[in-house]
Specification:
The longest helix is centred in the first third of the chain and has 20 residues, at about 40-55. The strands form 3 sheets. Strands 2-8-7-6-5-3-4 form a 7-stranded mixed β-sheet, sandwiched between helices. It is globular, with a radius of gyration of 21 Å. The chain is α/β, with parallel strands linked by helices. It has helices spanning about 15-25, 40-55, 70-85, 100-110, 130-135, 155-165, 250-265, 270-285, 315-325, 340-345, 365-380, and strands at about 1-5, 65-70, 90-95, 115-120, 140-145, 170-175, 195, 210-215, 295, 305-310, 330, 330-335, 350-355. The chain starts with a strand and ends with a helix. Helix 6 (about 155-165) links the parallel strand 5 (about 140-145) and strand 6 (about 170-175).
């Protein structure tokens, strides 16, 4: 089996993550903050320790400003709908996932915001100056990915962050594909809000995620309910993280997510990035001159370990199906929940086959992917 769908979720997970998941489930998976007994208090401590680990991982200053969510979509909806106001203007890009585009478009349809979408070039690269050109007097928020989930193109978030700070505009970054691979320093990069999943390059379980909120930024809750705190008051608490974490969280998953962060720190994020880029570069180098394959993206250092392609004369879904059924290679085909990214590149009708490499992939596996594509091409010509 060769799994190269890490852009959807990392697989396999490190053994330390699985061990932590099992240990917590067996020994102290009580409801944190809801009881005064020892198991609940241990769970509460472990969850807080993960909060501290995530805070340090992105160089934030206050662990209580790390809000637990269930995935990046949850985080993005909370951030977007929690900060915009009537008649605000928001800017985003054509490289965004539907987790950004759909909430923003819904707010636009409801007449709450005006929305500007800046298109990338034919390689999926964003000229950040075009974002700056769209700013109006009522621009309150800029939302961008740090790395495209379809073509792997990397956005200069530090330059955008500096601009937003100067113009007093909130900057929300979708780190779904980048956290755990690219360096993120929310202070240096002037990131006001950072949305991220736990189940991708942080190596955590599904159903985990987070939203970082810079000090003094007010995010209104999307829901109200029990928080295990201020229980005598029928009003929602106003402090973080309580105000945004109603209901029982995925405590077992969060504890295991902390083990995922530990794993990255042990291996070294630089080592992970270099390994994944080595795989990506090898894959591109061995396919770029194949006239039967169309590769998308800049195909250089501006692209992370995500490579989308098409085999000429074949539907992307068929190619992905054959890879799975005949070669035991698992990719993602279609439109990757990012319709404007495909429109930007020109694959809005074909879709594309996405190979997203991860830390546990090897050069030998990449070689097998290349040979499988060559065999599919050969068969298709008969």
């Amino acid at each position: 089996m060769i799994y190269v769908d890490n852009g959807a979720t990392t697989f396999p997970k490190p053994k330390s993550v699985i061990d932590k998941l099992v240990d917590c489930s067996l020994h102290y998976a009580a409801n944190p903050g809801r009881s005064g007994h020892k198991l609940a208090m241990k769970m509460d401590r472990e969850i807080y320790e993960t909060r501290e680990k995530l805070c340090k991982f992105i160089n934030a200053t206050n662990p209580l400003n790390i809000i637990y969510t269930f995935n990046a979509t949850d985080s993005l909806n909370l951030a977007i709908k929690g900060v915009v106001k009537k008649n605000d203007h928001v800017i985003t890009t054509s490289m965004e996932h539907n987790s950004v585009l759909r909430p923003l478009n819904e707010l636009k349809k409801l007449g709450i915001i005006d929305l500007s979408i800046v298109y990338a070039d034919k390689y999926g690269v964003i000229d950040v100056n075009k974002i700056f050109d769209e700013v109006r007097e009522n621009t309150s928020l800029i939302v961008t990915t740090q790395m495209s989930n379809v073509f792997g193109t990397i956005v200069d978030v530090e330059k955008i962050g500096a601009f937003c700070k100067e113009k007093n505009i909130l900057y929300l970054v979708d780190a779904a594909q980048s956290i755990g691979v690219l360096d993120i320093d929310v202070q240096k990069m002037n990131i006001d809000l950072l949305a991220f999943p736990g189940h991708k390059a942080l190596f955590g379980p599904m159903g985990t995620g987070g939203l970082y909120i810079k000090d003094k930024i007010k995010v209104n809750p999307l829901k109200q309910g029990g928080t295990g705190s201020f229980s005598q008051d029928i009003n929602q608490p106003s402090i973080y993280p309580d105000s945004l974490e109603s209901g029982t969280s995925n405590g077992v998953g969060i504890v295991a997510l902390g083990a995922g962060v530990d794993f990255i720190n042990e291996v070294g994020i630089k080592n992970i990035r270099e390994h994944e880029n080595e795989l990506k570069n090898y894959f591109i180098e061995n396919l770029k001159d194949n006239k039967d394959i169309i590769l998308y993206g800049p195909l250089d250092e501006r692209q992370g370990a995500v490579v989308s392609l098409n085999v000429k004369g074949m539907d992307s879904s068929k190619v992905s199906f054959i890879l799975s059924e005949d070669f035991d290679i698992y990719t993602r085909a279609g439109f990757h929940c990012a319709p404007l990214a495909h429109k930007t590149i020109g694959t809005q009708r074909l879709g594309a086959v996405r190979f997203s490499f991860g830390y546990f992939n090897t050069i030998e596996q990449v070689d097998k992917c290349i040979k499988a594509l060559e065999k599919i091409i050969e068969r298709n010509k008969k």
